[in-house]
Amino acid sequence: MISIIITAFKEPKTIGKAIESILKQKTNIKYELLVFAPDKETLNAAKKIKDKKLKIYQDEGKGKPSALNIAFKKAKGNILILTDGDVYISDNSINEIIKPFKDKKIGAVSGRPMSLNPRNNMLGYFSHLLTDEGAHETRLKLNKENKYLICSGYLMAIRNKIIKQIPEVSLADDAVISNLIYLKNYKIKYTPEAKVYVKFPTTLRDWIKQKRRSAGGYSQMKKIIKSKDEMRSFIKESKEVLRALKYPKTIKEIYWTLILIILRLYLWLDIFINIKLRKQSFSKIWNRIESTK
Q1: C-alpha to C-alpha distance for 126 and 138, rounded to whole angstroms
Q2: C-alpha–C-alpha distance, residues 152 and 172, integer Å
Q3: How confident is the prediction along the chain (293 residues), in pLDDT tens digits per residue?
Q4: Helix, strand, coil percentages in the chain from 3-state DSSP, rounded to 5
Q5: Per residue in 5-32, is it b (16+ CB within 10 Å) or e — as a string?
């Protein structure tokens, strides 16, 4: 049996679609579906869906890492599939993401985020460049070379009991989980056929908040779990500039790409000042991104 875990917070408008995308999967695999949320609005929306496989829990509202720690204790499956309440998965994602676990050396598998944003505006274009040319191509390359890669928190699967909990201050829980599994000498694979559809920020303010949180989380890992392995860093990202410049198809997209490079430079500088030097707390860096809901 496998356990599918959805963590959510103030997502009553999207939690139904997230749950339904799982329940309509054509799979012969026995599974339980666990939903965790601290707010009544999301919990009540989830309870409208009636299915014997669905179990709904109220967490303490301390953040996603804390909710995941509770989920790790309650889940009964040998494999845990982790996803969010504001995304939904493709029709065959469950079957695809568990295939690599036939190899007992595999500890985690990442799905593929797909942007729901239109490409014809700047922030929408950013989402496609970063998911297609950035995350997807990078994971494909690392997967082919059997090298370490970080799973996407939008959709990932892990072998149960490898890790029992993660630090509650984790800004990038997906990176922390991936690192902890890798440090126990398990391999991590990428299955692009397991797709998860994501709405990315539609305002520049939200975009900066989201990217600051995720990139800051990668920087934070070295401190909270003593990890030396990272898929993202300022130096690694700097080496990908030429590849990013090959992605645009129009003059306007070239202009947007140049803006993105400047913004990423600003973000890494901000992370260096506020996280590494000023050591800002989890509560100041973790911000809810309203435009993705």
Answers
A1: 16
A2: 10
A3: 999 999 999 999 999 999 999 999 989 999 999 999 999 999 999 999 999 999 999 999 999 999 999 999 999 999 999 999 999 999 999 999 999 999 999 999 999 999 999 999 999 999 999 999 889 999 999 999 999 999 999 999 999 999 999 988 887 899 899 999 999 999 999 999 999 999 999 999 898 888 777 766 666 666 666 665 554 554 566 566 667 878 999 999 999 999 999 998 888 787 766 655 556 554 555 566 666 76
A4: 45, 20, 35
A5: bbbbbbbbebbbebbebbeebeeeeebb
Secondary element (H or E) of residue 192: strand 187-198
Looking up tokens 């029992």 gives 164
Query: Which two three-digit tokens encode residue 63?
Result: 């953040």
Q: What sign for the dihedral angle of Cα 157, 153, 181, 100?
A: positive
Given CA atoms 73, 74, 75, 80 in this order, what sign does their dihedral have? negative
| Cα–Cα distance measured from residue 264 to residue 123, given in angstroms and rounded to the nearest whole number | 13
How far is Cα 150 from Cα 214, in angstroms, rounded to an integer?
12
CA distance 226 to 199: 32
Q: What is the pTM of this model?
A: 0.89
Q: How far apart are CA 117 and CA 114, in angstroms?
A: 9
Pairing of β 106-115 and β 155-159: antiparallel
